[in-house]
Each structure stands twice: as C-alpha cells, then as structure tokens.
Amino acid sequence: MRLTVDRQHLLAALAAVSHVPAGVARVEASAAGCSVTAAADGAGARFALGGVGVEAPGAAAVPLPLLRAWLADSEAGRVRVTADRSGTVHGTDRERLAFPLSDPRAVPDPPPPPAAGVEVPAEAFALAVARSAFAAARPGREDRWATKGLRVAIGGRALTLAATDTHHLAVATVPLAADAAAAVALVPVVAAKWWARLRGHPVLVAVGDHAVRVECGPLTAWTATLAGKFPDLDQLPRPGHAARVPLAPLRRALRMALAGADPEPGDEIDPAVRYVLVTVAAGSLTLRGDADGGLSSAVEVPIPGRARTPFAATLDGVRLAHYLRTVAAEPEVVLRWTDATKPVEVTAGEASRYVTFPKVTEQEARAA
C-alpha cells in the first residue's frame, strides 16, 4: 500500500477513532477511497478519508498512538505512507517514521446497519448524551441493574437516552420529525460518552439486537449491546410538590455550597463537600454545604410563589451541578419532591429530567 495524504486530514482521522481502546488502526486504500478503522472490546469506529492520492491499493494495521503522536509533531503539509513488509511515513526531507505492521484482518469491519434508525441534529444528540450518561455508575461496580449502561430507545416521535446507578437517574429525549419503529438497546456508557463530542453533520442512530451504530458525516461508530435490567421509565412515580427555581442563581449558589467547585461527576473532590442540604420554604430555596456533619453558611435563592409544602433533603451536589451545567441555556428548572426520603426530581423543559435519592440518615430511615 502506498498513498499520499494531507497530514492534518490523516491526523484528524486517527483522532476520530482514537476513543476506541485499540493499539492499532487499519488504514485501507483503494480506488474507491481511503478509510481508517479501529476496533476493540465490541466497539469500533471508521473514518472515511478524502483527498488521498492512492499510488498502490492495500491495507495495513498501523500503531495508532505512535503514528498519531508523530503526525502531531510533524511540520509536513502532506505525508507519504508506505506499507509493505514494514511501514514508513515520510514528511519533510528530514522527517521519517518507521513502524512495525500487524495483520489488518485482525481489525474487524463494522457490523451491518440495523434496520431501525433515525436521523437527529448532532447538537441535540450530543446534549442528550451529556444530560443522561453522567448518571451511570463508575466502572468496577457490580449490580443487578445495568448501571454501567446507557439505554438507547427509539419509539414514536422521540429518541430517548437514559442512565442510572440506582441512586440517580437521568433521562433526555430528542424529538423526531416523524414516527419511528420501536427499538431499545443498552450499550456500555464508556463507549457512548464520546457521542457528546459529535458535531457538524446530522447523526444517524441505528439500534439493533446486537449493536448500536452511529453515523456522523465521515465517521461511522458502533458498540455491542449489553444484557441487563433497566427501570421502566413509564412506571416511575412523579413527586407531588414542585417549585420553579431560576437557573443562573441556583448554579451560583450551588458552587458556593460546594466550596467553589463546579466538578464533573468523575472528578476527585473533597468528599466532605460533595453533598448539599436543600431547603425549600416560603419564597426561597436555601443551599448549605454538608461538610463532615457540619453545615456551611446558607446561600439563598429567591423563587417565584410560595411553596405550599416545605422541603429539606441532602442531595449529591456534584451530580446536581453536572446536570445543571448541561441545561445552562434554560431560564429555570423545576424541583419536585415528596419528602426527605423519596426521590427528588429536577427537570428543565420537557426534554430532560434528573432523579436522585436524598442522602438519608439512619434516624430518617427508621422514621420512614
């Protein structure tokens, strides 16, 4: 195989498939075009590369991290890739990389496209992923529920994504222009989180029995489905009490209650300030950082109207902060509750909701 290609284009193709935990990528060139494919552990990605001069068709499995690092440091405009018994990349007159090759047949092709698929705007799809995937459990936890999976469901006029770790549940929907055939699958959340970075082209989401396939412009990605149980979203009870809360003041108050932090769910933060006590009474919502059993000073957020039923519960401030970040464009959220021991729901419009169980003390659990 011999080809010449713009260095930045080849680097972009390698970057697009590098979310797959694979050590090698297959570069394939023919008269029909050129592609870069990586696959491992039931997940994979293929990027169709344009503007390639194919001198000799063929395929080669190249070391993905090494080639990507070399291209990032190169100053060449175009590079020449040669693969015979060994591989070389030539850049400028002084730039050359020799690398070992492996069998390209070891990198599998994408599975056939599933029959059930819908097209959605990339920005809406990426936002739905960000609003749902964060609620999944961290790797390593074992549970009878599919806590490390993202539920992808097509049905009616909506694409719905959901994740849970049994203490938190996040659901986000993307409306569809027409009715779609019903299809549901669970996929590993670690393989699906990168979907939140898709931009620039409409996204085709296809759900099958064994794989979910996503296409966005020149990129095609797939991941094998998971087996497991997931809560029936239609059977989830809705809390009976509600308060509308302006979003911008709420986010500022939450940052203060978390000692200035605005972390992602997986970030390392002081566990002493992870939780916040949320109190709703009269015409205000109050947040206090719950630090080692002691409470920080109160941060008050005025809310419209008067809450008929007062409410106080200790919530996971880190995950709440992440959800509020994903809905930052909304003017307000609605907080719904039953009591301090039942799930609390936060919604932003009709497209997303976040459900979390309060942190319950032993005394509260006995009283319930």
Descriptive report:
With 368 residues, the chain is of the alpha+beta class. The longest helix has 11 residues, at 7-17. The protein is elongated and about 75 Å long. It contains seven helices and 24 strands. It has three domains: 2-106, Roll (DNA Polymerase III, Chain A, domain 2), CATH 3.10.150; 116-235, DNA Polymerase III, subunit A, domain 2 (DNA Polymerase III, Chain A, domain 2), CATH 3.10.150.10; 241-367, Roll (DNA Polymerase III, Chain A, domain 2), CATH 3.10.150.10. The model is unreliable at 362-368 (pLDDT under 50). It has an eight-stranded antiparallel beta sheet with strand order 6-2-3-4-15-14-13-10. A six-stranded antiparallel beta sheet has the order 11-12-24-23-22-16.
Largest sheet, spatial ordering of strands? 6-2-3-4-15-14-13-10
- CATH superfamily of the largest domain, please? DNA Polymerase III, subunit A, domain 2
Largest sheet: 8 strands, antiparallel
Which shape, going by the Cα principal axes? Answer: elongated
Number of domains: 3
Share of residues in helices = 10-25%
